[in-house]
Amino acid sequence: MQSITETMQSINIMKRHWLSLAIATFGLTLILNPVAASAPPQVFEASGATPADIQTAVSAFRTALGGSNNGVGNLGGPFTTGRREINWDGVPDAKSAPNLLPANFFNNTSPRGIVFFTPGTGFEVSANSINPTNTPVRFGNIFPVYPALFSTFSPQKLFTALNSNITENLFFVPGTAGTDSTQSATVKGFGAVFTDVNLGNSTKIEYFGVAGNLLFSRNVLPQPTQRAGLSFLGVVFDTPNVFLVRITSGNRILKVPNLDVVVMDDFIYGEPQALP
Questions:
Q1: By the 8 A CB rule, do 202 and 231 touch?
Q2: DSSP SS3 for 231
Q3: Which of 14, 132, 167, 187 could form a disulfide with 270 if both were Cys (CB 3.0 to 4.6 A apart)?
């Protein structure tokens, strides 16, 4: 069995491979099909003390992506419209705290066309309220006060990188369960729900094109309450040209509640479209 370090090294090698391949492909595409000027992206954002306070922004973001939730896998696909969503609650106990979530879980086991990367030591989904190891909910296994700091948009699980506040997301055409998709893709938009954002400059989402160019960057709105609030940020482009999304969640790793520790709930993004 690979160690955590070996696993993350393998993931990062795969990431570099796909980045290199995509950039080479994109260069040829530019020569054959010059890129037309695009409209400014649409921004959807909100913060509040309860899920209801951000629901309108989340719903508007879904509408702007267009189509419906395409669920898991590619049955009936490939899809040219719609979206994929991750709320973490279907992740089994064996892949939830205190265990690591495989970075390719949503490209393999529950294929929705996304793979996670971090300079940290891996990823964790918080435990269910009833679990075989009696692990505390909402990352109480990492620090006892976290269940009081963190709330949920879609109960009851949350998501975080470990030993880093950076999560990067690469997109793939969703395939069938049990087999990693290797068809790199881009999306039209990406949004995420955050909990316990206290500062206006601690948490942000950056959107990158296939050539590594920064398309857009925006800070996430802080919550209006002292603790347990929610924030949402989603951005939609007029074409599916988002190749990589980098999330900075807070300004402190999830270890001790100091400065601004932030974790994530729902991910929502446009249907991954195959690179030419």
A1: no
A2: strand
A3: 187
pTM: 0.88
Residues 6+ apart with CB under 8 A from 251: 165, 199, 202, 259, 260
Instruction: Extract the tokens encoding 86.
Output: 């991750």
pLDDT digits (tens, 9 = 90+) for 213-252: 999 999 999 999 777 899 999 999 999 999 999 999 999 8
The set of residues, in sequence order, having a beta carbon less than 8 Å from that of 204 and lying 6+ positions away, is 217, 218, 219, 220, 247, 248
**Contact assessment for residue 196 and residue 221, using Cβ atoms and an 8 Å cutoff:** no
> How many Cα atoms sit within 13 Å of 225 on the Cβ side?
16
Length of the chain: 276
Structure tokens at 36: 């037309």
The Cα–Cα gap between 169 and 120 comes to 14
pLDDT of 28: 36
